[in-house]
Write the structure tokens for this entry.
Amino acid sequence: MKRSATAIWRGGPRAGEGTVTTSSGVISNALFRTGTTAHDIPCTTPSEMLVAAEAACMSLTLAAELAEDGITAEAIETKAELVIFADKKIWDISEIRMSVKAHIAHMSKEKFNAAVNRAKQHCLISRALKPKLTIKTEMVEIESAVAAN
């Protein structure tokens, strides 16, 4: 499987702006700027796109881990926050903090946390970035589970 994206940047690092388009077309000419100039117009930043990818990947990976246990979640909501450390001109990801809330039926909290820990180890984005990763979990018990696919 191959995925691609094209980004075009115009101008200097502080006053410029760019657009990004993905090969699927789902993201098409999305405006992005640096984090320090992205406050006044609706746009994204590279770090925001990265943390969005982390949240999406964790939700999907957790769904796969739950399916291994024969459980399909009604919903998995992952909120992710990217913490960036700036040292002069070098910026680095110091941590990614996540909160995962899953609506599932008939699963113990221990088995749920084990699935989350496996997802943490198997998530493609987490493996690529290798950040310090903290995850708070919440399991909401629902009446019945949907059959795992």
Summary: The longest helix spans residues 46-68. Residues 1-44 form one domain.
